[in-house]
Amino acid sequence: MNECFGKSYILNGEFHAAETFDKSMVYEGESLYEVLRIMKGCPIFLSDHMDRLSSSVNLQKKKILVDLTELRHLIIELVRMERKSDINVKIVFNYNNSSTNYLIYCIESVYPTRLQYQKGVKGILYQAERKDPESKVINHKLRSSISHRLINESAYEAILVNNDNLITEGSRSNIFFVKNNTLITAPDKLILKGITRKYIIEICKENEIDIEFDCPKASEIKQFDTAFMTGTSPMVLPFAFIDDTPF
What are phi and psi for residue 6, nearest 5 degrees? Predict the structure, then answer.
């Protein structure tokens, strides 16, 4: 799959043809990023994504490479030029020794089908722990390893299990379990705080649904009534299985 999907991309405020896209500007050095979803031509939760990008930059003690107001303008301009009403847009701040660049481009996105929303998807447990989980940092090696496992096991998402055998988050999502009408999800400090997750928690509080911030043991997932994931592309998507445990 091509990293840049579309006719053009933005590099440091200027538009370039997609054929000139150089992946080394994303995968060499250190890259902080955000992925936001475009629906009916509109960026969803744009302010939330900008806030989280700013937070990642501050946590990693980096510098903002473009004014966030200008970044918003460029995202909207790219979407307008690409004429794609439903797609994901990726923003990358790349720090490579003394060189810094920021990129904005469309990425090829696969959204769940109606049947997957109705029936659920397969998840797999994956032993891994992200460094600095509160920052959105590209880890190409981990991403490639997970992608191979997902393909080999015909699964939709990998659920990360840390060294204490605790479930923290998905490889590209936040994870929720339900037991006795209580929602269970990992504490904020152990995960990347997803934007969809944020609104799920707000909805639960408004409707007086109990929430427990805890990391379940991987060995104890059979005790839960159901499980689901949240994220930019899947939104809210149930699991039919995690490994061989049905929900």
Answer: 150, -170
**Rounded Cα gap, residues 90 and 126, in angstroms:** 25
The pTM (predicted TM-score) of the whole model is 0.92
Cβ neighbour number for residue 90 with a 10 Å cutoff: 20
List of E strands, 12-139: 14-17, 30-39, 42-43, 87-96, 99-107, 121-127
Contact between 14 and 67 under an 8 Å Cβ cutoff? The reply is no
CA 209 to CA 182: how far, in whole Å?
7
Whole-angstrom Cα distance, residue 247 to residue 227? Answer: 7
Digit-coded pLDDT (tens) for 56-112: 999 999 999 999 899 999 999 999 999 888 899 999 999 998 899 999 999 988 899
Token couple for 89:
């847009």
